[in-house]
């Protein structure tokens, strides 16, 4: 049966699962000015973040080995960066800088930026943490990029993370969970080939001192409640 591992039919199904599991948490600084879906045609766009071009981070633990891996050398597939390059208009210039400083972002006059950050792979008890934060240099990347240009932040993680401190700076936020090898599923929805339909499978907390927190708790006050997820229809112009 090993001959069926990674066949195209299975990859297409995995890509569909990625599309349907993406959860849109924020879309624009105001409801009447949504940022997503993104235009494919733009003069120049920035892709940034430690998770934008890393199969291992997309896959998480229990991939190839127990605790997962970092990089693109152990499995085939598509990263978020490569799928953005394949999806935008051929005239759109795509610039990748993993962790650019604010001056670089301001001086380059980008139309918009896509930032992919999150957790490093883990499995079982080695993933137990009291500090559920975005791994460095992710917070700095968000601050530098989103403080200078319209930005979409993609969170790559197996669970909700601390994002409230950055919420007002970010224009749009997508919880992508662990999309595995099929990063193309992320681009499919970002650029409006398909709409956002995913809903949160668990409550997204505001601060760590709220945990544990579940629906029905007396002081249930989440950042995003269980079942939350904005919708965005497919683009008619892309």
UniProtKB/TrEMBL annotation:
UniProt GO molecular function: beta-glucosidase activity
Listed GO biological process terms: glucan catabolic process
Source species, domain of life: Eukaryota
Pfam families: Glyco_hydro_3_C
InterPro entries, per database record: Cellulose_Degrad_GH3 (IPR051915), Glyco_hydro_3_C (IPR002772), Glyco_hydro_3_C_sf (IPR036881)
PANTHER family in the cross-refs: BETA-GLUCOSIDASE (PTHR30620:SF91), PERIPLASMIC BETA-GLUCOSIDASE-RELATED (PTHR30620)
The protein's name: Glycoside hydrolase family 3 C-terminal domain-containing protein
């Amino acid at each position: 049966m090993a001959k069926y591992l990674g066949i195209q039919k299975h990859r297409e199904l995995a890509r569909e699962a990625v599309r349907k599991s993406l959860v849109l948490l924020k879309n624009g600084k105001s409801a009447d000015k949504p940022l997503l879906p993104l235009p494919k045609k733009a003069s120049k766009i920035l892709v940034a973040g430690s998770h934008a071009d890393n199969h291992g981070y997309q896959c998480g633990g229990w991939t190839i080995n127990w605790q997962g891996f970092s990089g693109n050398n152990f499995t085939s597939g598509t990263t978020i960066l490569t799928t953005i390059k394949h999806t935008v208009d051929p005239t759109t210039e795509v610039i990748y800088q993993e962790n650019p400083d604010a001056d670089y972002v301001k001086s380059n006059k980008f139309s918009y930026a896509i930032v992919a950050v999150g957790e490093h792979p883990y499995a079982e008890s080695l993933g137990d943490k009291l500090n559920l934060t975005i791994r460095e240099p992710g917070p700095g990347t968000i601050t530098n990029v989103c403080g200078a240009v319209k930005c979409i932040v993609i969170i790559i993680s197996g669970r909700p993370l601390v994002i409230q401190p950055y919420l007002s700076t970010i224009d749009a936020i997508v919880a992508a969970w662990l999309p595995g090898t099929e990063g193309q599923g992320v681009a499919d929805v970002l650029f409006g080939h398909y709409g956002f339909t995913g809903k949160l499978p668990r409550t997204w907390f505001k601060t760590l001192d709220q945990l544990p927190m579940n629906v029905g708790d007396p002081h249930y006050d989440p950042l995003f409640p269980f079942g939350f997820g904005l919708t965005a229809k497919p683009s008619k112009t892309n």
